[in-house]
Amino acid sequence: MINRRLAIFASAPLLSVLLAACGVGADSSLAQSPEEADVATATTDPVLQGAIDIHAHLDPDGYGPGGHGRSMDALDLAELAEQAGMRGFVIKQHYDQTADTAYFVRKLYPDLDVFGGIGTNFATGGLNPYAIRQMADVKGGWGRVVWMPTWDARHYVVNHGNDRPFITVASDGELTPEVSAVIEAMAEVSGRTRVSGGSLVLATGHNAPEEVLLMVEKARALGLQVIVTHPLLDSVGMSVEQMKQAAELGAYLEFVSAFTRQPETIVEYADAIREIGVEYCIVSSDRGQGSGPEGDEARAQTHVEALTAAADALRANGFTEQDLDIMFKENPARLLGLPVLQ
């Protein structure tokens, strides 16, 4: 079976990764196993059984503004997710599309629901409707999430003191024509991704709260599912009232695991989730950030460890297992157009 797969992938750019993962003569430096990368064994927390992580940073990826590599690759996480009993994950990149990576991971881990997406930053042509259509056409149709500008968004660049070009998504209280064109292209191909016929999801990116709400309104009017990207992080900075507006429009709100680092942010996130309602919330890891150029200079928390830490923090603040199931399993499935498992 491995030889047949290698023949299929002979001209593919991920061949070296697959060779190394399968242990069939590739240079082991091209892709580390979880043991080589010092990745911890998956935890056994029940919150992971059937969980879907909608925000997983993974190699192969580029550096981006920070200059640090990722802590593991997509095959590393697939192994951990399978061990932990997870249902799947979404591979996020800011400067590329990951539909092809998801396709290859699914070949080796057919029991996992693995999805890709695309970031609408400069590296993919910015607000480029042609790139959206191409992602939906990648074999398998596993490219499902479109992240509006993140690292190259005006709001992110200006508020992080960067002196570099940026992408503007709204002006004078209206979305730019380029943003509207991307959202309309998503609606055009949603439900018709290649082979799998999947629906697309709009993720709002690192944009200002008022811009996020404009995107939510436009996308929901066209029937698209929407996830508001980590609204409480500084890269966005929404108030609870603004998050409630997004929920009223039909969007989900994403709460990433970094909130577990400080006691005050644990309380802030727990209060916000409780006020908005768990039925509108999704908890994701947003992990995969490494240390140093190749991401291996220090041990990094894994995605499954991050999800477990988030679940423990929420339990300590009064959330039930049923609440956790809604945020870690059921809402991610609804967002991605998957059946909710009982």
**Which word captures the global form?**
globular
- Rg for CA atoms: 19 Å
The overall strand count is 10
Backbone structural class: alpha/beta
Provide the residue-averaged pLDDT: 89
For this structure, the CATH topology of the largest domain is: TIM Barrel
Strand/helix succession: HHEHEHEHEHEEHEHEHEHEHH
How many DSSP helices?
12
- Tell me the span between the first and last alpha carbons: 33 Å
- Total of domains: 2
Strands side by side in the biggest sheet: 1-2-3-4-7-8-9-10
CATH superfamily of the largest domain: Metal-dependent hydrolases
CATH architecture of the largest domain: Alpha-Beta Barrel
CATH class of the largest domain: Alpha Beta
Helix residue percentage: 25-40%
Note down, in words, how this protein is organized.
- By secondary structure, this protein is of the alpha/beta class.
- 38% of the residues lie in helices and 13% in strands.
- It has helices at 2-8, 15-22, 74-84, 99-108, 129-137, 154-159, 177-189, 209-221, 240-248, 263-276, 303-316, 321-335, and strands at residues 52-57, 88-92, 113-119, 143-147, 170-171, 174-175, 201-203, 225-228, 252-256, 281-284.
- The protein starts with a helix and ends in a 7-residue tail after the last helix.
- Mean pLDDT is 89; it is low at 1-40.
Describe the structure concisely for a colleague:
The chain is an alpha/beta fold and 342 residues long. It is built from twelve helices and ten strands.
